[in-house]
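ok trying this again, last paste got cut off
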Amino acid sequence: MINIQAHGHIDEHGMLRIQTPTALRDVEVEILIVLQPISDSSQNTGSGWPEGFLDSTYGSLADEPIERLPQGKAETREAMQFGEKLQ
């Protein structure tokens, strides 16, 4: 089995044309095509955030900063001995 991944463009008539060279000759093959739209790259910075999102939200909590309250003390647990069986 040969896996080929490519990008294509569907025209205004809904037609996708695929031409892929292979080493196979004069043989029937089974073809699986998965169409997955690619998001508009002009709207995406590559990090998953829309263009300008981080600039527009930076400093938005400057007037009301988030306060982290005291967390208290963590519970102390007994150390397990290597090879000890749990009941």
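PB: full thing came through this time. The CA atoms of residues 52 and 58 lie 10 Å apart.
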